[in-house]
Amino acid sequence: MEADKPEPFLGYMIVGTDGRITDLGAGAPPPAPPGADSFDAGGRVVMPGFLSGHSHLQSSVARGLNAGRELDGHIDFRAAFLDARFLQQGDLYAFTLHGALDYLRHGITTAYNYPNRRGPARYYNEMFQAEIAAGQRFVYGYNVPDLPYEKAREEFLAFKAMTDTQRDNPLFLRLTLAKNGHLGRVIGHGQFPTEVRIAREFGLAVQLHFLESSFYQKQNRHDFQYMKDSGALDVPLMYAHFIHASDDILADSVKAGAAAIWNPLSNGRLASGLTDVPKYLKAGLTVGMGLDGQNTADIANPFENMRMGLYTVRMQYERASVLGPLDMLRLHTIGTARAIGVADRVGSLKVGKYADFLVVDTTDPDTGPVYDLYGTLVFACSFTNIARIYVGGDLVAEDGRLLHHDSRAIGTDVRARMDRIKAASAAVLSSMAR
Ligand SMILES: [Zn+2]
Questions:
Q1: What is the tally of structural domains in the chain?
Q2: If you measure from the C-alpha of residue 326 to the centroid of ligand 1, how many angstroms do you get, rounded to a whole number?
Q3: Residues 6 or more apart whose Cβ sits within 8 Å of residue 388
Q4: Among 92, 258, 373, 377, which has the highest number of CB atoms less than 10 A from its own CB?
């Protein structure tokens, strides 16, 4: 899948004890050192694990809800449903673990987690701990609390001190900020200067929801000037969605080195709009892909996400050459790694990078003869074709089963917690329905 080596080849890969790739090539492997484990992929496909550049992992407990709602109604409903006052210790840990493991078993080996702020800091911090426990690689987006600068900075420092204890953990790739609230909506609008100030001081990138629903298109385009005035374009920016960009916003964003995360499943589910990715790529924008939260992309299936994105763009352009299967595979792997700033360690299979990879079996379920491997992978495969998932050379899932976690026990725990929250929030929700 590398730009200079686009042809699939029959070969080998060697992984060191530190989980990084030490050798990779075509043909027969060199003799294995004594005691080394080996696995013969036997005609199956080895490819990099997928990345999601924008995710709300704790939302995996709220799937199938809000079937008739767009972004705005969706957020209001979810906010009431998972209101901080209904949360107890351990809830956000359990929900995030549930979401991260769901991602992992669908072949997503790295996720950017955008954990919406809920409850006091001790609850909030649980989401970081759950990421460590999940065994998935992650970038954490710290949600700066909506407080005056000094207080917000103090809370950030306490959180950073906790993450510093995990600095050498290879799963924790990077700390960034995730903008509080949604631009255009009431919350989070006036907070930008504080967030930008903290980002500048600590050299952090910022991810924000921007130009998502068409409802806020006009307001959001107007917000761009406010963002500029706040100095936001001087820090590395990652836009989640970026559907309704004007030519001027696109040009300024390319100039500023910003990146965009494309979430086709979520954008379709919430009727948010079509993203003109070919135009963005042509303009030189860095584009990655995301599965968003499982409450808006209910199955965290990167194959479905690639198809949804590819097909909508082809429908829009009425031209098949506008984007192809290899483009989609790259966008969901190395493209996303670049967009979230971790391409030095993950996103492709290269000597020195982590051995995060999938073994895909195109014969189970059987997809017939292979003529064009990338065509088969993107058009004909699904996560059910993933036979094995490795993170840092460690086998974490086989035939759809996670090997290091008790998925059933985690599911039971999450259901019990949600039963309690559903009962507590019933009155609020019924008043919303009226
Ligand atoms: Zn989002």
A1: 1
A2: 26
A3: 39, 358, 359, 395, 397, 398
A4: 92
pLDDT digits (tens, 9 = 90+) for 40-93: 998 999 999 999 999 999 999 988 888 888 887 777 777 777 788 889 999 999
CATH number of the domain residue 224 falls in: 3.20.20.140
DSSP code at position 49: P
Looking at residue 382, its pLDDT comes to: 96
CA 350 / ligand 1 centre spacing (Å) = 30
**Residue 82 Cα to ligand 1 middle (Å):** 16
**SS3 at position 239:** strand
> Does 401 map to a domain?
no
CA–CA distance, 113 with 139 (Å, rounded to integer):
6
Please give the average per-residue pLDDT across 246-264, as a whole number: 97
Q: Which residues of 353-369 are buried (b: 16+ CB within 10 A; e: fewer)?
A: bbbbbbbbbbeeeebee
In which element (H, E) is residue 413 found? helix 407-433
Ligand 1 centroid, distance to 114 Cα (angstroms) = 7
Q: Tell me the CA–centroid distance for residue 370 and ligand 1, in Å.
A: 36
Does the pLDDT value for residue 1 go beyond 80?
yes
149 located within any domain: yes
Domain presence at residue 383: no
Contacts of 78 (CB under 8 A, 6+ apart): 59, 62, 65, 66, 295
Helices 247-256 + 217-229 axis angle, to 10: 40
Token pair listed for 168 = 């050498």
In which domain, by residue range, is 89 found? 46-345
Please check whether residue 64 lies inside any domain of the structure.
yes
* pTM listed for this prediction: 0.96
pLDDT of amino acid 433: 58
Computed over every residue of the chain, the mean pLDDT equals 93
Place of tokens 């014969």: 363
